[in-house]
Write a structure and sequence with these properties.
Strand order of the largest sheet: 1-2-4-3-5-6-7-8
Structural class: alpha/beta
Distance between the termini: 25 Å
Radius of gyration: 18 Å
């Protein structure tokens, strides 16, 4: 699989990207979630899209991976009032929002001279994709939203076992073995019990990502970007691109009912359920996801 790498200047930030496959093939732009570096779109998943005749672009968000870090910027006060405002669909004052991150994505498309792309977003990436699709409808051939939400008023909150992770995190100065074990435990809970890779594979994944970039402050700012944007219904309801919403039955982070609600909010959207999938992309779920996405690509 031929890979081209580069850095795109998008406003005030630079985004690191990988551009895979035939540059003349129909482009698919993949947008990941909170704190998730570009390898979180697995190599094998991307390769299967390339094998089906698509050009695949994945990238690091601002504050993630090899892209620009906004050192020192933070929202004022405790995060809890922002969480409460978010649960009621309201916005907060934060360093940047999902609107800014959608502008980053548009800048990446401009840099790559891609007029229209099939845009696929996972989790927070799906939220960014909604903003992009509504704000710049001419840039999308189709839209795929995986394990995402519209963040509408009183959306279902994560399961308690996920919420507890925020309170049980090791201290910043904890030994690496302790932090590694906590990361593996978090992935295991968020992935869910089905299709869970072996523990050794999860450890390697965490170690490789940490070696590439270790910047937890960025994840906190991206979480604030979600809180600061509030409900996305004003975007969801105005999307015109052919849309496929995909959600797992066992997602403990973004609950399945949020996926169903998102599909209802987008005119003409299709909703596909992947049995047993949690909030991750292990290999057993690639086939149903790629089949649903490519079906939607064909509708464009």
């Amino acid at each position: 699989m031929h890979t081209r790498t580069g850095t795109a200047l998008c406003g005030d930030v630079e985004l690191f990207y990988e551009d895979l496959g035939d540059p003349d093939a129909p482009p698919v732009l993949l947008i990941m979630g909170v704190g998730a570096q570009l390898p979180m779109w697995p190599d094998g998943f991307c390769a299967k899209l390339v094998e089906r005749g698509y050009r695949v672009v994945r990238f690091d968000h601002r504050d993630t991976g090899l892209s620009t870090k906004l050192h020192g910027e933070k929202a004022d006060g405790s995060v809890y009032p922002r969480v409460l405002r978010h649960m009621t669909g309201r916005r907060s004052q934060v360093p940047y929002t999902l609107v800014d991150m959608a502008d980053d994505v548009k800048g990446l498309l401009d840099h790559l001279d891609i007029d229209r792309a099939h845009v696929v977003g996972a989790s927070m990436g799906g939220m960014i994709a909604q903003v992009l699709a509504a704000s710049h409808p001419d840039r999308l051939a189709s839209l795929g939203l995986i394990m995402s939400s519209s963040n509408r008023l009183f959306s279902a909150v994560p399961r308690w076992r996920v919420i507890k992770l925020a309170f049980g995190a090791p201290a910043k100065n904890a030994p690496w073995d302790e932090r590694l074990a906590a990361e593996v435990r978090s992935i295991s809970i968020i992935n869910g019990p089905n299709y869970l890779p072996p523990v050794d594979a999860l450890r390697r994944r965490v170690e490789e990502l940490r070696a590439r970039s270790d910047y937890p402050q960025g994840m906190l700012r991206q979480f604030d970007a979600i809180l600061g944007t509030g409900s996305l219904l004003r975007y969801s309801r105005s999307i015109t691109a052919p849309t496929m919403v995909i959600h797992g039955t066992n997602d403990p982070m973004v609950r399945p009912r949020n996926g169903r609600s998102l599909a209802r909010a987008i005119p003409g959207a299709q909703f596909v359920v992947v049995d047993g999938m949690g909030h991750d992309l292990p290999e057993p779920v690639w086939r149903p996801i790629i089949e649903a996405l490519t079906e939607n690509f064909a509708m464009a």
